[in-house]
Design brief:
The complex is a heterodimer. By secondary structure, chain A is an all-alpha fold. Helix content of chain A is about 75%, strand content about 0%. Chain A contains nine helices and no strands. Classes of the chains: A mainly alpha, B mainly alpha. Chains A and B meet through α2, α3, α4, α7 and α9 of A and α3, α5, α10 and α11 of B.
Chain lengths: ~200, ~260
């Protein structure tokens, strides 16, 4: 039992920091670059991602384990997963709107944006490729989303600080954000010693 | 009535016009700046760039053709899920073909091949062009866009590979073990590869400088009074940025109303 918990903790650290979803795997770059202007919105986006990616990892690995793998049609996983994720996002939005109004007010606006986040599909596919069990998939999905939140909140904090800096005109906007992300990526390679 | 002139003076919506439009005038990576995730992720070498680019071209051309053929059958309310199914089918096809014939490349590109499904270039072209035009122009639109994408990411891959490892298309040119003979080769072998360029951070840096150069070109064009409306704002995230701005504006408006 203790060994299982230890291996899950190791998985969490690896998924959230060492193989950070944005800075080392380049998944979910669009929201990372787009929604990182303010720390508030970055936190909201991160929270919505944690919610959706964890749910999607659970549902996709259940579908893979009990439907696709036994029927030997695992080559259909890309089609099935993308449709499941698109439906899941809509479904979560409706459920939250009806039953958990406070959570909907906090996260609702970010949910439609998540369908375009390739991190959700990327994590679901990686879970299958790495042969994770359902529990491991959920833990990995959760940790990956936490890693995304850490990265986007740090970037938003840095961008708020840099907003009024005097920089060369062609570097204003996206290039500066990309350079900052590059420096963050270097900083995050330091975590590889944790492996 | 005279036919409207399209890209580079070709007649509009002919195969050639569509091809050059995608390759030059509306190059998805360099001009429109969409589909940035694979651009950053798979450009650690030129060969990976070509592989990813050709796989995307294949999906783009065929999904454009099929979506164009079905454009009158698909009701507009369910068009987005239908497009996703068509695109995902072709992506699965490419994935299986690559696994069978180029397993090494497939292993190098890994999860980014199935992730072509969520590449905004493909969805963007389906929505903006294929769902409104005939099969032949839509097919060539896909080919042009795809080749434009391939060229751009191959170039980025080449720059990163050359600076970061001293190789070009996996041939050692700079640094130890160079293929160049004689005194020149001895001089070139002194080069110390800047390995950060093939790591993740290098991708961000190269793309940052690329966009900065595009911005400079755009500014120069604007200063000369040319039309720059076609240039993208930098990354598919611009739509998300607009949405995020709206969220903040709404929140502030809400606060004011309460106060």
């Amino acid at each position: 039992m203790a060994e299982t918990i230890l291996s899950l903790v190791g998985l969490m650290i690896s998924a959230s920091l060492v193989n950070n979803v944005v800075l080392s795997q380049f998944l979910g770059l669009c929201p990372f670059l787009g929604v990182s202007k303010k720390t508030d919105t970055a936190l909201g986006m991160g929270a919505a991602c944690i919610f959706v990616i964890t749910m999607a990892s659970l549902v996709c690995s259940i579908i893979y384990k009990f439907i696709l793998a036994p029927l030997d049609i695992s080559y259909l996983k890309t089609i099935v997963f993308i449709l499941v994720i698109a439906m899941l996002v809509q479904f979560v939005e409706m459920i939250l709107k009806k039953f958990v109004v406070s959570l909907y007010q906090a996260l609702g606006v970010y949910l439609p944006l998540i369908t375009t986040n390739c991190a959700v599909l990327g994590v679901a596919l990686n879970n299958v490729t790495d042969g994770y069990s359902i529990l491991q998939s959920v833990v990995c999905g959760f940790a990956t989303a936490v890693g995304f939140t850490i990265a986007i909140v740090i970037l938003a904090g840095l961008r708020e600080k840099m907003e009024y800096n005097d920089i060369p005109a062609p570097f204003k906007g996206m290039p500066l954000v990309l350079l900052t992300s590059g420096l963050m990526a270097i900083a995050f390679t330091g975590f590889s010693a944790l492996k | 009535m005279e036919a409207k002139k399209g890209a580079l003076g070709f007649k509009q919506n002919t195969p050639a016009e569509r091809f050059f439009n995608g390759l030059v005038v509306e190059n998805p990576t360099l001009v429109l700046m969409i589909g940035m995730c694979p651009t950053l992720a798979v450009t650690s070498s030129a060969i990976n760039g070509i592989g990813m680019g050709l796989a995307t071209t294949f999906v783009l051309a065929l999904s454009n053709a099929v979506i164009s053929a079905l454009r009158k059958t698909i009701p507009s309310t369910v068009r987005i899920p239908s497009f996703i199914v068509v695109i995902a089918s072709f992506v699965t096809l490419v994935e299986l073909l690559m696994k069978a014939y180029v397993p090494a490349l497939n292993a190098a590109l890994g999860v980014y091949i199935p992730l072509i499904v969520v590449n905004c270039i493909i969805f963007g072209r389906a929505e903006a062009y294929a769902s409104k035009n005939g099969i032949v122009p839509a097919f060539f639109d896909g080919i042009g866009m795809g080749i434009g994408f391939t060229c751009a990411i191959t170039c980025i891959g080449l720059v990163r590979e050359f600076i970061g490892g001293g190789t070009a298309f996996d041939v050692q040119i700079l640094g130890e073990g160079t293929v160049v003979p004689g005194a020149v080769g001895q001089f070139l072998s002194q080069y110390q590869p800047v390995s950060i360029f093939i790591q993740q951070a290098g991708a961000f840096f190269v793309l940052a400088f690329l966009i900065a150069i595009m911005n400079k070109i755009k500014m120069n064009m604007a200063a000369k009074g040319k039309d720059t409306s076609k240039f993208g704002q930098g990354c598919c995230s611009s739509a998300e940025e607009a949405a995020a701005d709206k969220i903040m504006a709404d929140k502030e408006a809400g606060k004011e109303a309460k106060g």
